[in-house]
Amino acid sequence: METRSNHVLVGSVVLILLAVLALFTVWIARLGGASEKEYDIFFKQSVDGLAKGSSVTFSGVPSGQVKLIQLWKNDPQFVRVRITVNEDTPVLQGTTATIQGSFTGTSTVSLDGAVKGAPPITCPANDAANQCPYGVPVIPTRTGGLGALLNSAPQLLERLSTLTERLTGLVTDKNQASIAGILDNTNRLSRALADRGPEIAATLAQTRIAVQQAGDAAAKIGDLAATTNGLLAEDVKPAMANLNQAISAAKQSADTLNATIGDARPGLQSLSKQTAPELARLIHDLRQMTDALTSVAERVDRNGAGSVIGQQRLPDYKPGK
């Protein structure tokens, strides 16, 4: 009976010690978990090389590890990754997550982009169901590093394939012959230019001389223009002053003439209405008198002065004639 009682006592003590050890382990786990924070990341890319327990870094500093990797049931295009980081890791507004691959095949989750003074990433109270579907804050992602290259690899391969096909279609036998002809023509042109090198050099030299002469001519024209401006400033100004004085005198004379004409206008009107007809009759009478005197002068010249005093004598009549 005593031996059986000792076994029961020992078994009870062992069970009590195991229970205490379990409680201590749970307490330690909770104590350690209280110093870590959990976040979800939804990657819309391949997470090849990433596994449970992979390292999480912040600006290259180890800060946590990957806790869970699974496809997101709401949208299979995304991969949900649960990470835990140290409590002092500055996961703030503006922080993003990327997958950093390596040639060894392992990948890590890299966090970066914390802004000083920004608030930490938390679940909003008004839209927590959509913003935090699994009850922890969500860190936004960005494509970068080897992951971006791997994601764009299919498009790059497709473009390289298209470019290869186009180059293959371009380099046909006919196009090769055309390219060969172009190269031959280029060679002939190069040889012709080489043969005409001295002539081209002489032409360039003449061109330089012509340009220099043009520059000298331009300088002389500039000097002439400056001299002309000086002459205009010295000689033309006095002449313009004299011309202005002459114009003023002519204006005064014109004003005086206008006044004189205005004063003589009544006399001119009387002359045109009364004296002009009398002068016309006088001129008519003078013309008649002039014609008569001309006739008398002509008669005196032909027949003498007696033709004016008496009648003209008839010629003697002789019979038989």
Automatic annotation (TrEMBL):
The chain crosses the membrane at residues 7-29. Pfam families: MlaD (PF02470). InterPro entries: Mce/MlaD. This is MlaD family protein. The keyword Transmembrane applies. Keywords: Membrane, Transmembrane, Transmembrane helix. It comes from Sphingomonas lycopersici. Residues 43-111 form the Mce/MlaD domain.
